[in-house]
Amino acid sequence: MNSLTVIKRDDEPQNAVVHLFAPKRIEIDAPEGMEVICDYERHAFRSMIEYEQLHQKAIDQILAVMGNATIMRFPDGSYYAREVIQREAFTINPEPYSALVFHKGGA
């Protein structure tokens, strides 16, 4: 892939965070060249999901080979260890947040 070029709009406010939590819907036409940047985003998103799935399959295979063992050691001294990790409880308070969501066009 080519290097990513960030396009800055001339009329963009100094504090772009204003756009993240805008109380009303504001639409703009995508400036020239945004298709390439959006293609990078979609490709990266798909790749991330594929790698997460590959990662989980590899973990499943490693655990299957380990069976009931807690450690699987390699000749060089490195090893995988099955460990129990206690996660601390926490509460997430409800609050609004902004998310970037892609919607395919009807064309």
What does this structure look like?
The structure is a single chain. The chain has two helices and two strands. The protein has 107 residues and is mainly α. The protein has a two-stranded antiparallel ribbon. The radius of gyration is 22 Å and the shape is elongated. The model has no long low-confidence stretch (mean pLDDT 82).
Concise structural overview:
With 107 residues, the protein is mainly alpha-helical. Helix content is 35%, strand content 6%. It has a domain at 17-81.
SS summary, helix count: 2
Per DSSP, what share of the residues sits in E-state strands of 2 or more residues?
5-15%
Radius of gyration, taken over Cα atoms and rounded to an integer in Å: 22 Å
Low-pLDDT sequence parts: none
Which range best describes the helical content: under 10%, 10-25%, 25-40%, 40-55%, 55-70% or over 70%? 25-40%
N-to-C CA distance: 26 Å
The major β-sheet equals:
2 strands, antiparallel
Largest sheet: spatial strand order: 1-2
Structural class: mainly alpha
Mean of the pLDDT scores?
82
Question: Could you tell me the number of beta strands?
Answer: 2
| SSE topology string | HHEE
Instruction: Give the overall form.
Output: elongated
